[in-house]
Amino acid sequence: LDTNIEKLNGYLARFRETGILNRVAGEDVPGSAGVYQNTTPIDKSVICDVAHGTAADIDAAAKAAHAAFAEWRDMPALERKKILIKVAEGIEARAEEIALCECYDTGQTLRFMSKAALRGAENFRYFADQVVEARDGQHLKSPTLMNITTRTPIGPVGVITPWNTPFMLSTWKIAPALAAGCTVVHKPAEASPLTARLLVEIAEEAGLPKGVLNTVNGFGEDAGKALTEHPLIKAIAFVGESRTGSIITKQGADTLKRMHLELGGKNPVIVFDDADLDRALDAVIFMIYSINGERCTSSSRLLIQDTIKDAFEAKLIERVNNIKVGHPLDPATEIGPIVTEEHFNKVTSYFDIAKEDGATVAAGGEKVGEQGYFVRPTLFTNANNDMRIAREEIFGPVLTSIPFSTEEEALSIANDTEYGLTGYIWTKDLTRALRMTDKIEAGMIWVNSENVRHLPTPFGGVKASGIGRDGGDWSFEFYMEQKHVGFAL
Ligand code: NAD
């Protein structure tokens, strides 16, 4: 831990001196509303000042992205590919710095964030490999016409990201945008600006021309809003809360923005009594108590068959009570502090809500210490799906266990939610699994597995969990326009 803190202090020294500036057209620019202070959830101390950008800064960044668009769009594909591969290499070379900064900024633990930094590099490599074919179209010959379709990048786009795993998620949006040939204005979450700054530095060092990626820090209601309303910005890739997704859709309506929304979830993990219960237990724990439970795909509702409920919950309680809460830079720590005071207050409010609703706090349900925003990993039992702990996205290390008796009942509880991001099914009866996957209302379902992301597959949700898909060619569909040309024969 001490070595990691020492290294972190080395990395942060320059930010403590200069603050984090916006990056527009390859230049450092102060925020037009001055600065705001970024704090760490570990002990609430100030990390550094951050440029407070507003509509004026977004305007400058959108103009820079617009000015850089033609050069980037028309650069030969192989050259663009080379630059994106170099970005991946730059991320790998600075993975430790990224991971340490991310943990200090967000409270995420090093054991997970060191992998997330490398996932960022993978995202760049994966989309770099598609650059050459990404714009390929089709020939569709009719008796009288030779029809040619092509794809072309939509133009400058806005990317708005949340504070959970912010580096990985930013690369997940920005890499395909750049690979498509779009230029980008990135508005990172106000609570986690550090690694967005590292990303733009790495990209420019890799040779990305000035203005192709611009970063404007600031708050959602001014900088974020201005980005969604800017006429030069052709599309918005957004990751965040469902409520915000709805607001930005309205904000973008006047300029007819194309929107891609990756939103919240209240995802079920359904464990039948014929499942491999040891593996299911590991996965149930991993999918809600890793990454501080601040994960859109987390399985926050455990639907457990009543025949095995008592035994499964007993093992779960024992494991949850042994999860190590601590300093996020300690490699042994499994759960770090909750990202901000506001979010900490939200997560901890459910400890009372659960009791008021009649559920049992079977593990956790407490704050830890006074120094930072630490909570014990929490398990609620004796719950039903009507309780607020089963309906609302808590977005912390908090699991609600709900019993069911039949397949039909499991399905009905699973779908009785406004969300539809992921679902997880544990059973050895694969016919039953097929029936369930067919009927569960979710964009992504895993059978006998935790969430394992394979980049060519579509990622996204249904219902209040979002609109649109990322991954593989789905990302390019979003960042590009189709063009049809018909030649008379
Ligand atoms: P949030 O919606 O509060 O903020 C996300 C981003 O939107 C921030 O950058 C914020 O500044 C900006 N924003 C806020 N109001 C805005 C406005 N009016 N106009 C433009 N921008 C605005 O979300 P959060 O609390 O930072 O993140 C947690 C949420 O993100 C959770 O609900 C989680 O489920 C969701 N999430 C979803 C996915 C997914 O892939 N589906 C992935 C990660 C996180």
Automatic annotation (TrEMBL):
InterPro entries: Ald_DH/histidinol_DH, Ald_DH_C, Ald_DH_CS_GLU, Ald_DH_N, Aldehyde_DH_dom, DH_HpaE. PROSITE patterns: ALDEHYDE_DEHYDR_GLU. The active site is at E262. Pfam families: Aldedh (PF00171). GO terms for molecular function: 5-carboxymethyl-2-hydroxymuconic-semialdehyde dehydrogenase activity. Residues 35-485 form the Aldehyde dehydrogenase domain. Keywords: NAD, Oxidoreductase. GO terms for biological process: 4-hydroxyphenylacetate catabolic process. Belongs to the aldehyde dehydrogenase family. This is 5-carboxymethyl-2-hydroxymuconate semialdehyde dehydrogenase. It comes from Tritonibacter litoralis.
